[in-house]
């Protein structure tokens, strides 16, 4: 915390009056968990951590920030990877935690919608949907701690994008506190509403730089009668793309998951989580995890999967495959996929890239960029995995064996340049689902056109003229 001025003291006193003194945290022992990023690499500074209980209190805090010209950093579950939800080192901002806004306001199974507050943990939404016989399909590794407000602010993707789309596609309406402290409420749950500009989409993916999302109406779907999971072993990403085409042609929208994982990814998982095992007698260069959600029956789903995988084996697109015979086996296969990031963390520091390229170019991108990265950092180990079905790869780089993390991280800027330039040449994006935050704010200047940047800055200026909303992020 920075030294107090009279104005700062007055501002914090007003915050205590607005939301209660117990929810204005200023002691380092109370604020530490909020100010350090999820990966533990960066700790910012703040005047205080503020914990409002509802939208009205959020609006009061934002009005106070506008009046006293205090920057504000919104935060949900603090699971982001690009420094988007922690303040910088200036110490002149407040961190606005939305974790107390955690009510599910309404569930409408007939309209297939749920109205939720921004601080609701994603897993809780999934459970509430299941309780009324519905599915909320957003699913990602951090679902036990990330919040729907953060998911919306970063337009999170996850494992179900192939069938259900990103978080943007799962949202029908928002409640937002603007930079002036006004409340924009559009929580009607309508699928058709052509009455002017789509203000909702301005705030989704804006990372809290235009306003504070406090609630949303999200889409629900019928629960599938059966979900069948398979793990396929193959040699190359090119074969994985052929398998994707085959599976989509047979399964259409019933194909809800298609995840690519390299052998090194799963070897890391088995190394750091020895209770997990690959279900094959020998190692293979690549693996694909497929999931089929069926509206008929498990027998129908299994027969369809067996047909697809049988043809893949006959056509030499795959070397081996296993279809989960039970829910426990399905969870074990998914656990292999979901444990990759944690296994990377146990292995040591690494340089992460959340990129997307056109699906048809993924195999060529991997082959080309692997060579370029090896030239830049000989001996480095590629941890490549991700959502092949929607073109999103987590193209991560671990240091060579025996090289200290600190020495390797000194090459981060050079390696980022190699990877991101390659992404650009392949017509891709340097951020697929994690956002820009502070980490990629300068990087994006190389790849966005001047027209795009000018329009983005014009929107920022119009909606946040004092430049107080999550400063130093995105732009």
Topology:
Blueprint: H1 6-19, E1 24-25, H2 28-35, E2 48-50, H3 55-68, E3 72-75, E4 94-97, E5 104-108, E6 113-117, H4 122-131, E7 134-135, H5 148-154, H6 161-164, E8 171-178, E9 183-186, H7 199-203, E10 211-219, E11 221-222, E12 226-234, H8 237-251, E13 255-262, H9 263-272, E14 286-294, H10 298-314, E15 320-323, H11 327-338, H12 340-347, E16 354-356, H13 362-376, E17 381-387, E18 392-398, H14 405-409, H15 412-425, H16 450-463
Parallel strand pairs: 2-4, 3-4
Antiparallel strand pairs: 1-2, 5-6, 6-10, 7-11, 8-9, 8-10, 12-14, 12-15, 13-14, 13-17, 16-18, 17-18
Helix pairs in contact: 1-3, 8-10, 9-12, 13-15
Structural features:
475 residues, alpha+beta, Uridine Diphospho-n-acetylenolpyruvylglucosamine Reductase, domain 2, Uridine Diphospho-n-acetylenolpyruvylglucosamine Reductase, domain 3, Alpha-Beta Plaits, 7-stranded antiparallel β-sheet, 5-stranded antiparallel β-sheet, flavoprotein, FAD/FMN-containing dehydrogenase, FAD-bd_oxidored_4_C
Give a brief rundown of this model:
The protein contains 16 helices and 18 strands.
Task: Describe this structure as you would to a colleague.
- This protein has helices at 6-19, 28-35, 55-68, 122-131, 148-154, 161-164, 199-203, 237-251, 263-272, 298-314, 327-338, 340-347, 362-376, 405-409, 412-425, 450-463; strands spanning 24-25, 48-50, 72-75, 94-97, 104-108, 113-117, 134-135, 171-178, 183-186, 211-219, 221-222, 226-234, 255-262, 286-294, 320-323, 354-356, 381-387, 392-398.
- The strands form 4 sheets. The protein has a 7-stranded antiparallel sheet, with helices on both faces. The protein has a 5-stranded antiparallel sheet with strand order 5-6-10-8-9, sandwiched between helices. A 4-stranded mixed sheet has the order 1-2-4-3, sandwiched between helices.
- The protein is α+β, with helices and mostly antiparallel strands and 475 residues long.
- The protein folds into 4 domains: 6-97, Uridine Diphospho-n-acetylenolpyruvylglucosamine Reductase, domain 2 (2-Layer Sandwich); 104-222, Uridine Diphospho-n-acetylenolpyruvylglucosamine Reductase, domain 3; 226-341, Alpha-Beta Plaits, CATH 3.30.70.2190; 348-450, Alpha-Beta Plaits (2-Layer Sandwich), CATH 3.30.70.2740.
- 48% of the residues are buried.
- A hairpin with a 4-residue loop joins strand 8 (171-178) and strand 9.
